[in-house]
UniProtKB/TrEMBL annotation:
<protein>
    <submittedName>
        <fullName>Helix-turn-helix transcriptional regulator</fullName>
    </submittedName>
</protein>
<feature type="domain" description="HTH luxR-type">
    <location>
        <begin position="81"/>
        <end position="146"/>
    </location>
</feature>
<dbReference type="InterPro" id="IPR000792">
    <property type="entry name" value="Tscrpt_reg_LuxR_C"/>
</dbReference>
<dbReference type="InterPro" id="IPR036388">
    <property type="entry name" value="WH-like_DNA-bd_sf"/>
</dbReference>
<dbReference type="GO" id="GO:0003677">
    <property type="term" value="F:DNA binding"/>
</dbReference>
<dbReference type="Pfam" id="PF00196">
    <property type="entry name" value="GerE"/>
</dbReference>
<dbReference type="InterPro" id="IPR016032">
    <property type="entry name" value="Sig_transdc_resp-reg_C-effctor"/>
</dbReference>
<keyword id="KW-0238">DNA-binding</keyword>
<dbReference type="GO" id="GO:0006355">
    <property type="term" value="P:regulation of DNA-templated transcription"/>
</dbReference>
Amino acid sequence: SEFENIIQASCDVVMTSQKTIPVLNTLTYGGKQKMIQPFMLNVTPLMKDGKCIGVVGHGKKLEIYSMYHSENNIQPDSLTFGKPTDLFTDREFDIVFFALQSLSAKDIARKLSITYRTVQSRLHIIYQKIGINSLSQLKEYCRGKGYDNYAPTRFINTNPYIPLV
């Protein structure tokens, strides 16, 4: 595959460090109608007798272009990198981005290498800033503002396989 070296390098990092790394992987499919589907993966060392003998990955499809768009007959805009508003700090927008992908606060904490309580605290601040009380309201608010078509700038990379460490 054309990305074999990139993938192998990430596997080597996991095997050497013996630590799980998060990866944003974007696949293109669909023949003439090129569709882009991002996945969040955790690449984990496979251990036997205290030695790393390989890696295993577990992923979740990110729903940047969600069922909301098709159910409401709305054509999603293209994914834009950056922060759509100055209302949120960079870290808050990172949390919003992952919350829109339906990641739990614990999963968001792991992805961002922060504590679960920090995520909960930041979500509370985000809710206060926009006058809401729940994740479902956050999703509705972000869809209404078009924020669901944005991704944090730190995800910009020309490679379709991005280690997030």
